[in-house]
Amino acid sequence: MASLRDIRHRIKSVRNTAQITRAMQLVAASKMKKAQDQALAGRAYSKHLLQALHDIRKNFGEESHPFLAHRPGNRELVLVISTDKGLCGAINTSLARKIFAQVSPDAHFITVGRKLRGTCEKLGKQIIADFTVRDPVPFAATRPISRMIGKHFQDGNYDKVSIAFTNFYNTLRQEPKVVTLLPLQRHREGEDQAFEMIGGGFSMAAHQADPDRDFEFEPSPAEVIATMLPLYLNYEVFQAHLESRASEHSARMVAMKAATDNADKFIKELTLEYNKLRQGAITAELLEITTAMKAME
Q1: Which of 244, 262, 264 is nearest to 88 (CA)?
Q2: For 50-90, how does the pLDDT look when each residue is reduced to its tens digit (9 = 90+)?
Q3: Residue 182 burial (CB count, 10 A)
Q4: Which residues lie closer than 8 Å to 109 by C-beta, 6 or more apart?
Q5: Tens of pLDDT along 180-229?
Q6: How far apart are CA 75 and CA 4, in angstroms?
């Protein structure tokens, strides 16, 4: 049985841990709000960009731009967006499980974030590039990533480019996603010429029913699509980073809150045990005194 001194030390240690997790919870909550606002604000632009691409895309074939070309091979490049730090629940583990269940076993990787970069290295996966993106996510920091992806695809080094990230839904719900980035998909979920939207919330059926969705292009649709497709690639990579960062801070805030609550509960249990032992020791001393007094009578 633990002594009173041991229990006091354990209470002090758990209380110190609770102070750390509570501070991390407050920091994560502050960052979470900013990251969530940034991710949600970016979805409106992504939605309108995809709507425009949908209407332009129906007038062009695969030969009109390299980003539209579907190739018969299975050489795959995967952009993996994970976290640099831990203590954010199971989002990295869930994302890794999703990646290795869906992507090609021979896929090459571009990594953002130390956590899954280390996992890929341990599993012997080929990493062709690694990037660091600071917090909050600036658009300029993600452009070199999208440029590298676009160049590799245009040069024919890969037949498919996917992006793996954690999609943000709300503070308590984040889900891993693996989305085909290139070539642009013409059919998805039964919708004619639909595109995948990073972050969700895009209804192609509702867009098709919009009477004001017709466009007039100047100087020409071909020049417009040649400009918009690189912009689409840049922005989808950027939005995936925003979703991942919002998911990271949300998961860390929830994890640190749970850790703080568990520490507080453990302190109460240890305090109760300490008081019981102390009361037992006091009772034993009183019995010894009473016994000694009776023996002296």
Answers
A1: 244
A2: 877 777 776 666 667 888 888 888 899 999 999 999 999 99
A3: 26
A4: 77, 78, 79, 80, 120, 125, 126, 127, 128
A5: 888 886 544 443 333 556 776 555 555 555 555 566 767 777 777 788 88
A6: 64
Alpha-carbon distance of 56 to 41, in angstroms, equals 24
H helix intervals, 4-104: 4-57, 91-102
Tokens representing residue 167 in the block: 């999609």
Report how far apart, in Å, the C-alpha atoms of 129 and of each of 126, 145, 170, 246, 249 are: 9, 9, 31, 24, 25
Q: Strands 76-81 and 108-112: what pairing? A: parallel
Which residue stretches of 199-220 are H helix? 204-208
8 A C-beta contact, residue 263 and residue 18: yes
Q: In whole angstroms, give the CA distance from residue 95 to residue 82.
A: 8
Tally: H helices and E strands in the chain: 6, 7
Read off the tokens for 208.
């098709």
Residues near 38 by Cβ (< 8 Å), separated by ≥ 6?
A: 136, 137, 242, 245, 246
Question: Cα dist. 134→82, 169, 279 in Å?
Answer: 12, 22, 54
Cβ(160)–Cβ(77) below 8 Å: yes
The full set of domains in the chain, from first to last, is 27-253 (3.40.1380.10)
Give the number of other Cβ atoms within 10 Å of residue 94's Cβ. 15
